[in-house]
Amino acid sequence: MVDYIQIAWQGLVSGFAYALIGLALVMVYKTARILNFAAGTMAGISGFLAHWWAAEQDMPFGVAILFAMIMTGAGTYVVERLTVRPLVKLGDFLPIVIMTLGVEEFLANVSLLWWGGTARRYRVPGDIDRINWLIGDFRLNAWHLVVAITTFVTLSIVGYIINQTELGLGMKAFAEDQDAAKLMGIKESTVSIWTWVLSALVGGVTGIVFAPVLFLQQDYMNIIFIKGFVAAILGGFLSLSGGVAGGLLLGELEAFTIKWAPREFAAALPVVIVFIVLLIRPHGLFTREKGHERV
Amino acid sequence: MKSKLWKLLAIFAVLGLIAVGCGDDDDSSSSSSSESSSSESSSSESSSSESSSSEEAAAEEECELARGVTADKILFGSSQPMTGNLAALGEQAVLAMEVTRDRINEGGGINGRMIEFIVQDDAYNPEKTVSNAQYFIEQENVFAIWASIGSATLKAALPLHDESNTPSLFPWAQDLSFYDVNNHPLFFSVNPPAYAQTKGFGNYLVDNFGTDGIKVGLMTINSVDGEQTVQGYKDSSGGDLLVDEQTWERDSTTYGPQILSFIDSGVTDVYVGTGDTQFAQFLLEADQLGLEARFWGSTGTISANTIELAGDLSEGAYGVNVISSATGDKPGLNAYREAMFAAGAEEAQISTASLLAYTGGLVLEEMLTRAGECLTVESFVAAGESIKDFDTGGIMRPLNFSAENHLGNNDVIILQVQNGAWEELVVGQE
Amino acid sequence: MSDPIYEYDEISTTTALERAKIPLPKFLKKNHYFGFLGILLVYLLAGTYSEYSQTIMNTIIFAIIGASLIVVFGMAGQLTLGHTIFVAAGVFLSANITTVWTRGLETELPIAFGVAFLLGLLVGFPSLRVNELYLALATFAVAFVGVQVLFEWKQFSGGGSGKPVGKLELFGYEFSRGPTLVRIALVLMLITFWVVGNYQDGRTGRSWNALRTSETAARAAGLPVAWLKILCFGIGGGLAAIGGVLYAHTLRFAIPENYGVSLSIIVVLALIIGGKHRLMGAVLGAVFVKWLPELSRDVQEYEGLIYGGTLIILTLIAPDGLVGMFEWLGERIKNLKNDSEDRKTPSVVKETAPLESQYLAPLASSEAKGSLIVRDAAVAFGGVKAVDGVSFEIPAGGVTGLIGSNGAGKTTLFNAITGHVKGATGQFILDGEEISQKPIHNRALSGLGRTFQNLNLHDDLNVLEHALLGLDRNMKYGRIAESFRMPWVLREEKNAHYVAAELLDHMDLLEYWGEKVEDLPYGLQKRVDVVRALATNPSILLLDEPAAGLPTAEALEMMEKVQEYANHISAGVLIIEHNVELVAGVSDRIIVLDAGKTIADGTPEEVTRNEQVIAAYLGT
Fold first, then answer.
1. Do A278 and C137 touch (CB under 8 A)?
2. Is residue C274 part of a domain?
3. Which of the two ends of chain A, N or C, has the fewest CB atoms closer than 10 A to its terminal CB?
């Protein structure tokens, strides 16, 4: 019994990563109908920045993170203004997707030139990522707890912004009906830019909090991005909570299929299951048809 | 009128096609085109070379230098993963090659010739490795291709190398097929096949820990190298003790599921066929999940970075390598480290990848020296085959080559992390 | 379509087609010559540039794969992220055939195509259930799973270690791998491009383009959309496998891990960069993706910057791909030259009445068709009953008006009759045949023709092509014949062009035949919608607010034309209209809907005097 709890917890921890990235992706997609392919690389750069401030500039752990997040936000602001904004008028989603792919290539090269190929350890105060607590037969890693708390806090903050602030209202309006929102006087460019920044910050949090787990190396957030993408589609890509739920679900799916599925199919099974889900519910688990949100 | 013009053009085109198709002798494979370019280079070089004495002039005129060799330069090509998730390995290998080149050139070169090499990125994609090979051979006219990384990539390019009479030297690649001298007479290596490594591991395990209560788990990559790794273990004396086989993907973000499986199977020893970052993560997660076993890393895991990333958790971990630990204390290793740091290497780059390339460089230097003034592919190969008891300053046991054996080193070395550094336990495990 | 090299057929010189100077499809067009010469050039130079043979080969292979992707993505609009599964099929089949069977290209190519074709049909099924983003994921899943299958199917793929590829030979004659392989690849590229080009010119390509731009309208025109979607995957897959065979011989070793998702993405990216609507785009895209790394070898460590930066700039200035950019430049240059001339083509004088032309005259029929029986039609959206038990019978050949206030359920009723709304109940019988259970396109083939309130025209297609779409059901040539541009294919296409021209002439659209519909003024667009429906030779024509947004005079003129044609073929007409005067003028009978129910059904006089109708609709 406890074994299952352990597996479930491991799956949940991976799931947090997928959920956060899924959230970041859905956020931008809902509001601006853009798939941000650069999200993974951006999250990785946030992690590099946090390490740089702490290890090279000798900033305290928390301050380093703060500076990294500020730089992430600022950088995203600039990138959005320069690259995405001009394309939005076209209305066709394809060029924008290509654009984000171009940004991704560009940033990946920049980060390679800066960081190099070597993996580095992201040190946390007290090295708590190496502390494991034993609760009966259940083993809890201290940093995993930190990850869980961070995820919860991030989701709460995003939830607050979406539901209680004017920006959030604007985001929701744009998600529902772009033209109507514009007619109501909500400035599209403002909503767009802050959505991107918020999304990048969520990604940055993910990149930083998972750095001790994955080590800081080239492309370390890439796989998380792909799985976050899959998770978002599982959730329906039009529901924020759906994206999150999809991520958690995917994490659990992965954990349990390797346990139960024959070795040969273990890697492919999660994707196959998502595929089957889509056959049954083509618009994702948490979205009604025609893009109306259920949750 | 216009349409008639087009039709006329088309008829001419078809005629031209037939003419070209029939009379074409450009069907030569790249070997003949490279041979023609090599004879071009040698003839132009022999006419422009300055000889110090008339006897040498006479000798040189009879000698057709190999492609990529001139009176003052020998050119090598190297296809490396400079981008992608193996970028670290590429960087390390290149650094070692630079160190080798600088050492040779600062010493006046070999027979008056300086060493030069060109690096091209293949991102561990065989398609790029092949196109890089063509670039090296046909555009840059290199003498040989040096220090490739990966069996999948080299396997794709090897036919091109062989057909164009280009030696393939000292890669970090372990596929069994490479070592057949009859099929690949121009291949030289100091890196034993993956098969031999796990076989050595299995034998060592049984020799030192017996068979009572021993349960072994293997985690290998689902690729070219992985399968031979598993087979090697199965053929060792510990083969029957294998209870759990797991694989991992380059896309894995966690090894939790595999570790949980090992816990379930009750393994006492786990062989982890990964790179150093993955091994460190494995150790971390094994600790988190409570897998209590002896951990055995493979060649790629034996680096300072493993210890750096895994911290205290690396203490006591074993390693199976083909070469001494890069951080060990032996004349050859000290010289290697000194040179690497002088070239600007970081701690993390003191690793198997760079050490292997460096050691290959030592043998390369020897081969070139022995081949003498008249450096051709034949004299080079003969030189390599003549090397016996080559001393690497302790990095490997003395190397021996022959006409049937282009693999100078068959050592399997067992190491263990003690006090934050890799220490050798056994050298030359069979 | 705008090929200025044309020929006259020796019939009468007063056909609409000739007057408008519409070019006829021919066996060899300008593009064919250019393409052939281009390939010939590379063919001849292959020997000289043999040191680039790897890169040239990779470019050709990617161009072929790009062309195969044009079938799936460019034409049919199915965004697939799993296309390389077909390439992988070709690669591994090639490896096995050359080593295990020791056969050559003569075996590899047909088998690779055949197997990949069947695989494509299978892969095409998800495309019926999902679209756009979700299809991208479904195909992504296919690619992912495909690679895993390859890994595990060790006998076929050699597992992780992969399999070597055997000799390059054809009917026992062995070839070397340098320039000769390039030449063989060029020949295959020529064939592949020719085949894809033949689809672009033929009914299949037209149908694919139609379903990409408006699935609704495509179904209404009687096109078998579901089969077409599956077919595009089959054909696209088969062609991609040919690229795979060439790829196998270039790499000489087949390893499963190379054929995963990232290769799929690169292949799609290349096509989008080049321009997915033209074969030239496949070439340009392949050149971009393969030559950029080759030419930037010296600055390789900045390759990502260059590549990414170029992508960013390209999307900013050339959203239609490189081909789009060149076309735009070409337009600008042409416009500069034609500055003084009137942009519109001069109006074409009518000589023969189109309906009396040899093409439309045979369609005349005195046998009235289009009797429509509707029994208890009902459509509910959630709790709202949009159509609530409507029944009526329309005699063959009659003109019936359907009026009612906004939201009365008129268009929904149409959608129930044509099948465009799910969950409709009731019985629909057309000319004695029950069509209630049939899918949309079968109802269309049974004789239902319709227009749309919001037009649903096909952007990217010109006016003539809209008419040709409607004529699709008359074309009997098969898809295989179409691939190879058989003489009877051209004959039928030519005939269809003549018929289409006459139809356009009848609706006064002839001079706009070559215009893209999105460039036309609204009134003309409405006529295009009508022409498309008329071309299907319907038994009954369902017109949804054909006069909406038009000034009365124009509306009346158009209705006159429609009526004339309907009389010519003795078809029935059911017309939704707000303009009561218009409707009363043309109809034999009027049905009035209110809140989903019929409140009146009779002659115009009866209905306009009906008190309930006046209260609900006509008002004071």
1. yes
2. no
3. N
Provide the pLDDT for residue B18.
Answer: 57
Same domain, C390 and C250: no
pLDDT at B269 over 80: yes
Residue C408 lies in a domain: yes
Which residue is listed with tokens 């993907």?
B249
Is some CB atom of chain B closer than 8 A to the CB atom of A97? no
> How far, in Å, CA of A45 to CA of A222, rounded?
11
Question: In which element (H, E) is residue A79 found?
Answer: helix A61-79
- Separation CA B304–CA B327 (nearest Å): 7
Domain locations in chain A as residue ranges = 2-280
- For residue A132, list its beta bridge partners: A141
A283-287, C34-38, C172-176: range with highest mean pLDDT: C34-38
The pLDDT of residue C337: 78
CB contact under 8 A, B87 and A224: no
CB pair distance less than 8 Å for A278 and C308: no
Chains touching A (3+ CB pairs < 8 Å):
B, C
Q: Which of B94, B220, B230, B253 would best serve as a mutation to test chain A binding (most A beta carbons within 10 A)?
A: B253
Which residues 227-256 on chain C approach chain B with CB closer than 8 angstroms?
250-253, 255
Angle between helices C133-152 and A269-280 (to 10 degrees): 140
Q: How many CB pairs under 8 A join B and C?
A: 119
Task: Give contacts of B89 with chain A, Cβ < 8 Å.
Answer: 117
B392 neighbors B362 (Cβ within 8 angstroms): yes
pTM of the predicted structure, to 2 decimals:
0.84
Establish if C338 belongs to a structural domain.
no
Interface of C with B in 177-196 (CB under 8 A): 177-180, 183
- CB contact (8 A) between residue C40 and residue B139: no
- Candidate from A129, A130, A139 with C-beta closest to B289: A139
**CA–CA separation, C173 and A231 (whole Å):** 52
Question: Tokens 């020998």, residue?
Answer: B74
Whole-number Å distance between alpha carbons of C554 and C565: 17
Domain that holds residue C376: 372-618
- B124 confidence band (pLDDT: 50, 70, 90): confident
Neighbours of chain B (3+ CB pairs under 8 A): A, C
User: Average pLDDT over chain C, rounded to whole?
Assistant: 86
Q: Is the ipTM reported for this complex over the cut 0.90?
A: no
What is residue B13's predicted lDDT score, i.e. its pLDDT? 58
Count of beta carbons in the 10 Å neighbourhood of residue C538: 25
User: pLDDT at residue C38 above 70?
Assistant: yes
The answer to whether position C330 is within a domain reads: no
- Chain C residues touching A86 at Cβ < 8 A: 316
Q: A167 φ, ψ to 5°?
A: -60, -45
pLDDT in tens, B392-402: 998 998 999 99
Query: Per the structure block, which two tokens stand in for B333?
Result: 């290793």
Q: How many domains does chain C have?
A: 2
Q: What number of helices (H) and strands (E) belong to chain B?
A: 14, 12
- CATH code assigned at C389: 3.40.50.300
Chain A residues near residue C151 by CB distance under 8 angstroms: 264
User: With respect to CATH, is domain A2-280 assigned 1.10.3470?
Assistant: yes
Spell out which residues of chain A touch residue C134, defining contact as CB-CB under 8 Å.
233, 278, 282-284
C-alpha dihedral (B174, B175, B180, B181), degrees to nearest 10: -50
pLDDT tens, C229-240? 999 999 999 999
Do C423 and C559 fall within a single domain? yes
Q: Is the pLDDT at A262 greater than 90, yes or no?
A: no
In this structure, the answer to whether residues C250 and C395 fall within a common structural domain is no
Tell me: pLDDT of C324 over 70: yes
For residue A191, pLDDT beyond 50? yes
Domain boundary among C207, C222, C257: C257
Structural domain ending residue among the three candidates C224, C257, C290? C257
